């Protein structure tokens, strides 16, 4: 990397003033960092020097500008292991907020998040992404594709037929003939039959044949046209700046007979296409038709086929589409929210309304309500993760750590607590066993399935992946401690036969584990933060830093976080309310239901994040996702459940089934053995995934808990 300051040059041996560690007593690198920097300086590489900075009282990562253009800006992290074993991690950042978010991803105790919390500069986006956000698809390419043919079969033919029928109706009214003739409905019928490769333009009308004819036959004075949208507004409000005789009668006939039906049909197609995500171009085309095309005077609408060498210069282009399907729309976001999370938000509303209004199961049964409640947890988990990442990226490490520790496990805790409360009220011990199975399933999934799946998917693209073994060792040590502490009461009861361990031991363990978690936070975030060796490099030219346009401000993120948590509690209450019939009528072990469905569904957003990190050859974050969740399960979630019994007697006893103990301990040992050398491939990931499925098979054939 070549450093540059302002417009002047700098000799390779000169040290930048703002990066000089001697210039500020607060800027000190770690021993490993200084040693690696010395080695790099021997080779003339100044770009890997690392230092921290204190700005406005917030510890921020040092941004090292590198010479690169926005088009070649890498959007992934690179981890390089030097000859002496020091792991150097270089990440790119577009602004200070993104630098906070990216650096927090590598720190223990922070929720790993892939999506941007700030709006990316438009000029830095690829042409593929720019096309997603464009209302006018003007890329000239072949129009005969499978997606376009599917549009013709499912939408095109009957939509064109509808326009023909509306045209006939407008002709029968005589007054609405201008809209039903060749000037609008007939032209749009041909357009929507096969809209690809055609453009709709707004042109100025001159010498229109039907103006004088309608004026003579109907006695209507046809004066200067106005934009139909303003006419529609004045028609609805009852106020207009023009006199009544200046309004065209055919306009009102169109607004009463033609436009409402077409608007409803186009709106329905828009909703269906948007929900299917990959056909969002169809949704945009129909939305623009309702809001733009159908509100224009018919003589202003001009349709022509666009040739590959032709540039439409006749007028303003209103609508143009070449492809009905775009596979890249899984990247589409609305105000920073992924389109899938946006589409699943109505599911949350339907779940809450159906669950609390139809309390007697008159409309749907318990199985449907349980499934809807469980599916609603996925988008809510996404919103909670986005809110946590937004708050952490705009705050110092202390506030971020508190928010992550407080709300990082809120998804699982809401379900576990509501299940324990329901079990205590009904005197049913099955709920307690289901909660223990879900806790164990989360632990197994985060230790085996999540990193294993990420290794397999990442290993297909990258032959060998490396990660920071030292930072992973911190999480592994905490995981060993947490698993040992959680299962200590169980081992105590096994040593002394059937004697159940006394409450003091359980409470002692539940108090010590959160203290160990806090010590781990202090170790990784404060005293030994240098073990991550994070270098944040700006991907723009020196002196040109884009300002951060945050999707969610701190207060907005906090409001969304609280609302999502409230909805999460309601969905968890509905899930536990309607789980009893499923458990009673299930043909498989109830342990299996808890280990799989109840444990892994809330973690689906985390699994998606881990896969995305692995595809970008950033396996460190994929591994840390599973390790941090597993540590939070043992050091925060389980102690909270135990301490909750002090305030509400749920009879939750920290004694697990033998199968839970052996499966968890074996999984942790296997994970640490594979992560020992700091590198992996798809074969090692396959081993972890296979072990996970073997354990699932064991749970599948295991008998249900006694009394359930």
From TrEMBL:
Subcellular location: Endomembrane system
Positions of region (Disordered): 1-26
Main location: membrane
Gene3D superfamilies tied to this protein: NCX, central ion-binding region
Transmembrane segments: 149-174, 252-280, 337-357, 363-385, 397-417, 437-460, 472-492, 504-525, 557-576, 621-647, 659-675, 682-702
Membrane topology reported for the UniProt record: Multi-pass membrane protein
GO molecular function: calcium:proton antiporter activity
InterPro entries noted in UniProt: CaH_exchang (IPR004713), NaCa_Exmemb (IPR004837), NCX_ion-bd_dom_sf (IPR044880), YccF (IPR005185)
One BP term from GO: intracellular calcium ion homeostasis
Gene Ontology cellular component terms for the protein in this record: endomembrane system; vacuolar membrane
Keywords on record: Antiport, Calcium, Calcium transport, Ion transport, Membrane, Phosphoprotein, Transmembrane, Transmembrane helix, Transport
Biased composition annotated in UniProt, kind: Basic and acidic residues: 7-26
Domain Sodium/calcium exchanger membrane region: 368-524, 557-699
Pfam families in UniProt: Na_Ca_ex, YccF
Name this protein carries in UniProt: Cation/H+ exchanger protein 1
Organism this protein belongs to: Sphenodon punctatus (Tuatara)
């Amino acid at each position: 990397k070549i450093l540059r300051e302002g417009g002047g040059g700098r000799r390779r041996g000169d040290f930048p003033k703002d990066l000089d560690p001697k210039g500020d007593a607060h800027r000190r690198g770690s021993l490993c960092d200084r040693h690696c920097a010395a080695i790099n300086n021997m080779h003339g590489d100044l770009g890997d020097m690392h230092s921290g900075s204190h700005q406005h009282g917030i510890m921020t990562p040092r941004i090292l500008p590198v010479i690169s253009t926005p088009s070649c800006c890498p959007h992934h992290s690179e981890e390089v292991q030097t000859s002496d074993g020091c792991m150097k991690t270089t990440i790119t950042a577009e602004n200070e907020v993104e630098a906070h978010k990216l650096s927090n991803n590598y720190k223990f105790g922070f929720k790993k998040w892939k999506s941007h919390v700030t709006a990316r500069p438009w000029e830095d986006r690829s042409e593929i992404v720019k096309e997603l956000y464009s209302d006018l698809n003007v890329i000239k390419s072949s129009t005969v594709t499978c997606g376009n043919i599917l549009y013709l079969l499912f939408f095109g033919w009957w939509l064109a037929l509808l326009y023909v029928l509306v045209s006939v109706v407008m002709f029968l009214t005589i007054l609405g003939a201008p809209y039903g003739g060749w000037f609008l409905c007939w032209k749009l019928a041909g357009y929507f039959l096969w809209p690809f490769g055609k453009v709709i333009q707004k042109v100025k009308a001159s010498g229109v044949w039907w103006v004088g004819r309608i004026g003579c036959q109907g006695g209507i004075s046809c004066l200067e046209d106005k934009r139909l949208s303003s006419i529609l507004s004045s028609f609805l409000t009852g106020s207009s700046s023009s006199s009544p005789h200046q309004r065209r009668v055919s306009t009102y006939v169109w607004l009463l007979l033609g436009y409402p039906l077409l608007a409803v049909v186009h709106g329905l197609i828009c909703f269906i296409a948007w929900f299917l995500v990959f056909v969002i171009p169809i949704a945009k085309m129909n939305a623009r038709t309702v809001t733009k095309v159908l509100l224009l005077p018919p003589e202003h609408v001009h349709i022509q086929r666009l040739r590959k060498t032709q540039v439409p210069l006749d007028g303003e282009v209103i609508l143009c589409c070449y492809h009905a399907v775009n596979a890249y729309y899984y990247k589409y976001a609305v105000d920073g929210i992924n389109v899938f999370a946006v589409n699943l938000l109505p599911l949350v509303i339907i779940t809450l309304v159906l669950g609390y209004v139809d309390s007697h199961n008159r409309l749907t049964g318990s199985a449907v309500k349980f499934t809807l409640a469980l599916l609603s947890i996925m988008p809510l988990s996404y919103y909670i993760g986005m809110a946590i990442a937004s708050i952490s990226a705009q705050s110092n490490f202390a506030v971020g750590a508190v928010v992550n520790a407080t709300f990082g496990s809120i998804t699982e805790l809401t379900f576990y607590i509501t299940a324990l409360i329901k079990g205590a009220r009904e005197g049913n011990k099955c709920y307690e066993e289901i909660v223990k199975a879900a806790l164990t399933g989360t632990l197994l999934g985060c230790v085996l399935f999540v990193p294993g799946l990420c290794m397999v998917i990442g290993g297909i693209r990258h032959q060998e992946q490396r990660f920071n073994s030292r930072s992973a060792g911190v999480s592994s040590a905490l995981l060993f401690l947490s698993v040992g502490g959680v299962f200590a009461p169980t081992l105590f009861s096994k040593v002394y036969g059937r004697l159940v361990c006394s409450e003091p031991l359980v409470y002692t363990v539940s108090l010590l584990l959160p203290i160990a978690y806090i010590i781990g936070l202090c170790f990784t975030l404060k005293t030994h933060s240098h073990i991550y060796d994070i270098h944040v490099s700006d991907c723009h030219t020196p002196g040109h830093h884009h300002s951060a346009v945050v999707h969610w401000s701190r207060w907005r993120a906090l409001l969304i976080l609280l609302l999502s948590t409230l909805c999460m509690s309601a969905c968890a209450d509905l899930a536990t309310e309607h789980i009893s019939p499923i458990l009673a009528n299930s043909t498989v072990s109830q342990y299996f239901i808890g280990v799989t469905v109840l444990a892994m569904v809330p973690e689906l957003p985390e699994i998606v994040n881990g896969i995305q990190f692995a595809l970008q050859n950033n396996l460190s974050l994929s591994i840390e996702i599973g390790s941090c969740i597993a540590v939070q399960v043992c050091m925060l979630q389980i102690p909270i459940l135990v301490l909750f019994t002090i305030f509400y007697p749920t009879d939750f006893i920290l004694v697990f089934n033998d199968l839970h103990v052996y499966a968890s301990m074996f999984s942790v040992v296997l994970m640490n053995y594979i992560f020992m050398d700091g590198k992996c491939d798809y074969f090692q990931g396959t081993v972890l995934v296979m072990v996970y499925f073997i354990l699932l098979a064991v749970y599948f054939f295991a008998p249900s808990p006694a009394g359930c």
